[in-house]
Every structure is written in structure tokens, then in C-alpha cells.
Amino acid sequence: MADCDLSWEQTIRRDSHTREADFEDVIGACSLDGVWKASYTAFTVPKYCCYRRCVTAILGIPLSLLWGFLFACLSFCHIWAVVPCIKSSLIEFQCLSHGVKVVLRKET
């Protein structure tokens, strides 16, 4: 038993700077194999079940709609605002560059 306590203390010292806790840290490595396997199953199955079923069902559809709406808005702005502004600025800069070339050629 002293060996288990020493292992537990070493685990606490080793992981004292982190905030995450694995299953092995919570339950400990000093239990019987059958008890450890059963408690591991009892710990992980509801965790994954809740995550996969509940959280995905509750948040999956609203978040997909939100991301679809944001992508649509971004595409709309890019097609109707960004690209025309870039094209018009390129046309303006082309006209200005011709004017600058004419001025520089007259001065030389």
C-alpha cells in the first residue's frame, strides 16, 4: 500500500502544473484489473456518448447554419465589393501610370 501511495504522490507532483486530468490520474493505478477496466468503461462510455449524441445534436445543426450564413456573407462581399474595388483601382492606377510616364518623358 505504501508503494501505491508513493506512486499517487509522484503522479500528483508530476501533474501539479497541468489542469487536465486523465482517467488514470482520477481513479489511480492501485486498483484491481477488473475493477479498473469496469470503472474505465463506466467513465469513458458516458463521456463519449454525451459528447457524440447530445452536444453534436444540440450544437451541430445551429453551428452548421451559422457557418453557412457567414460563408455566404463573405462570398457576397468578396464578389460584389472586393473584386470590383480591386478592378477599379487597377484601372485607375493604369491611367495614373500613363500620366506619370507622359510627365516624366516631357521632363527629360
TrEMBL record:
Q: Where are the transmembrane segments?
A: 57-81
Q: What superkingdom does the record give?
A: Eukaryota
**Gene Ontology biological-process annotations:** caveola assembly; cell differentiation; regulation of cytosolic calcium ion concentration; regulation of membrane potential
GO cellular component terms listed in the entry, alphabetical order: caveola; focal adhesion; Golgi membrane; sarcolemma
- Please give the InterPro entries that the UniProt record associates with this protein: Caveolin
Broad class of the protein's primary localization? membrane
Give the way it sits in the membrane. Answer: Peripheral membrane protein
Instruction: Report whether GTP-binding shows up as a keyword of the record.
Output: no
Give the keywords, sorted.
Answer: Cell membrane, Golgi apparatus, Membrane, Transmembrane, Transmembrane helix
Tell me which stretches of the chain form a coiled coil. Answer: none
Q: Where in the cell is it found?
A: Cell membrane; Golgi apparatus membrane; Membrane, Caveola
An example Gene Ontology molecular-function term: molecular adaptor activity
The Swiss-Prot or TrEMBL record describes its family as follows: Belongs to the caveolin family.
Job of this protein:
May act as a scaffolding protein within caveolar membranes. Interacts directly with G-protein alpha subunits and can functionally regulate their activity.
Q: What is this protein called?
A: Caveolin
